[in-house]
Amino acid sequence: MQKVVTGDKLKKTLLSQNYSSLSSFLSLAFILFVTVFYFTDLRYISYVQNIDHNTPTNHTIISLIPEKTRSEKLPFAIGEGNGGCDIFTGEWTRDYTRPIYEEWECPFLEPQLTCIEHGRPEKDYRYWRWQPRGCSLPRFNATLMLETLRGKKMLFVGDSLNRGQFTSLVCLLQGNIPEKDKSMEAVPSGVVFTAKDYNATIEFYWAPFLLESNADDPYKHRVTDRIVRNGSIDTHGENWRGADIIVFNSYIWWISGLRILRGSFEDEVKDLVEIPMEDSYRIAVGSLIKWINKNVDPQKTRVFFTSMSPTHQGSYKWGGASKGNCYNETSMIKGGEFFGAERSLMQVISEELMNTGKAEVPITFLNITQLSSARKDAHTSIYKKQWGPLTDKQLADPMSYADCIHWCLPGLQDIWNELFFSKLFYP
Ligand SMILES: *[C@@H]1O[C@H](CO)[C@@H](O)[C@H](O)[C@H]1NC(C)=O
Ligand SMILES: *[C@@H]1O[C@H](CO)[C@@H](O)[C@H](O)[C@H]1NC(C)=O
Ligand SMILES: *[C@@H]1O[C@H](CO)[C@@H](O)[C@H](O)[C@H]1NC(C)=O
Ligand SMILES: *[C@@H]1O[C@H](CO)[C@@H](O)[C@H](O)[C@H]1NC(C)=O
Ligand SMILES: *[C@@H]1O[C@H](CO)[C@@H](O)[C@H](O)[C@H]1NC(C)=O
Ligand SMILES: *[C@@H]1O[C@H](CO)[C@@H](O)[C@H](O)[C@H]1NC(C)=O
Question: Where do the TM regions start and end (predicted)?
């Protein structure tokens, strides 16, 4: 699931081969050539290879490079993956040892996520684990994760769904940290969790489009006329540099009308265009990849991208009642076919992230869309604090007021973090 050709790794791989018989001039020339050209055109490598008459001319060397680098250790990896087993394909299995923590045990849960506290009558949705087909997930180990984060910074960048995953991770870890050594703080760009004894932070950075937009205030971003500025990845990107582990997401904000701004928000006459959702999403994913290529050191940093979080706003879509939504749903969607997100955007991700060779730094894809699509039972629905507590009138009208986008915690997003844990340590 990862793209693996990286500049430094490529260089290292090539240099580790036996060039002892080269003259020092030739090897210096070789290093310079490779250093200068590996980002621009891989063919130069074969060219340089060919002028080295001590090694046989063999054009297949190019296709061999990814094979070689693939076995190189990624930062934070402590073991091998399951021999190509796709951990995102599998099935939901009953597990009454869940949830891993209780609502009341995690002081950092926002009232937007605590469903039991807000009156959810049944708890079935909490007793599931994910069973990949053909392999098993490692058990989530908070000690290991915290030790790994010692002196480090983990950063979640994206929208409220990513904030949910961030919060879930904090809850999975915080039980291992004494009260006086942990804190959560709101900052202008989002929130920061600090584990003082570990000198570690886990941060959430609000950037729902990744690019600069008029919805960038983490606390007041409900704008109807959304505008996203083309070519602006550095606006937020500047603040992401230096993180050791970064988890990106971006999806839900792209699917309803928005316009792309060319130029700047300061321009008196704004040059705005409306383009298809797929095209605008491609701008964002493409810009992100360029930012990663330029700013991330693959020897030190791991990058993750979480796929679209599905929604359950119309039950007719999965063969339910004509006017229902996720409200009052207590079981999963059977069959595994329902896909609660825009397939065309998954296609964009596949093309940009996976197949094109654009990503020069490994980006680990957390493909949670399909497995979460079954979980119409796992949303916060009406059991949450919205912007204020729901009024009686709103509670009586779940068709309009149920939240079928976000997820109860503990719940589904803990599983996303188990998958994240698995990919971080056993890629
Ligand atoms: C090139 O390398 C590949 C892989 O090592 C090998 O199978 C092939 O025989 C080589 N071709 C030549 C012409 O040396
Ligand atoms: C969790 O990780 C720690 C640190 O690596 C290790 O000592 C411990 O044995 C692990 N626990 C389990 C249950 O695997
Ligand atoms: C804490 O971690 C930061 C990196 O996040 C590092 O620069 C700093 O030196 C560390 N401080 C101590 C006391 O270890
Ligand atoms: C966005 O910027 C890129 C790079 O400058 C450009 O190629 C593209 O045409 C722009 N897209 C729009 C919709 O303006
Ligand atoms: C909720 O679901 C139950 C069982 O599926 C059903 O009996 C009940 O009428 C539903 N309640 C509402 C308000 O739709
Ligand atoms: C993610 O998984 C879905 C189905 O589970 C699959 O159709 C899609 O191609 C996967 N996406 C990528 C980028 O691998």
Answer: 21-40
For helices 160-174 and 412-425, give the axis angle rounded to 10 degrees: 80
Residue type, 120: R
Decide if 160 is catalytic: yes
- Return the closest-CA partner of residue 160 out of 183, 139, 182, 191: 191
Residues lining ligand 4, judged by CB closer than 6 Å?
230-231, 260, 262, 273, 275, 283
The tokens describing 276, both together, are 């298809």
Residues 6+ away with beta carbon under 8 Å from 211: 228, 229, 230, 232, 233, 235, 236, 283, 284, 287
Q: Mean per-residue pLDDT for 141-154?
A: 98
pLDDT at position 322 over 50: yes
Distance CA 166, CA 168 (A): 5
Cβ 173 vs Cβ 197: under 8 Å: no
AA letter at 129: R
Which residue in the list 118, 236, 379, 406 is annotated as catalytic?
Answer: 406
Rg (CA), the chain: 23
Both tokens of 306, joined, read 């979480």
- State pLDDT tens for residues 38-82: 333 333 333 333 333 334 443 433 333 333 344 478 999 998 887
Give the active site residue among 309, 403, 414, 422. 403
Residue 177: both structure tokens together? 């940290």
pTM metric for this prediction: 0.83
- The mean pLDDT of 362-386, rounded to a whole number, is 95
Handedness of CA 111, 376, 208, 270 (dihedral sign): negative
Atom 4, ligand 4: residue with shortest CA distance:
231
Give the list of residues 6+ apart from residue 225 with CB closer than 8 angstroms, or none.
214, 259
84's enclosing H/E stretch is none
Structure tokens at 15: 């240099």
Catalytic residue among 160, 280, 315, 422: 160
Looking up tokens 């497995």 gives: 371
- pLDDT tens column, 395-409: 888 888 899 999 999
Percent of the chain with pLDDT over 90: 73
Among protein residues, the one whose CA lies closest to atom 1 of ligand 6: 367
Alpha-helical regions (H) of 316-410: 343-349, 369-373, 392-395, 398-401
**Active-site residue 422, yes or no?**
no
User: Which atom of ligand 2 is the closest one to the Cα of 141?
Assistant: 1
Under 8 Å between Cβ of 143 and 173: no
**Alpha helices, H only, 38-101:** 43-51, 61-70
For 18, the token pair is 């036996």
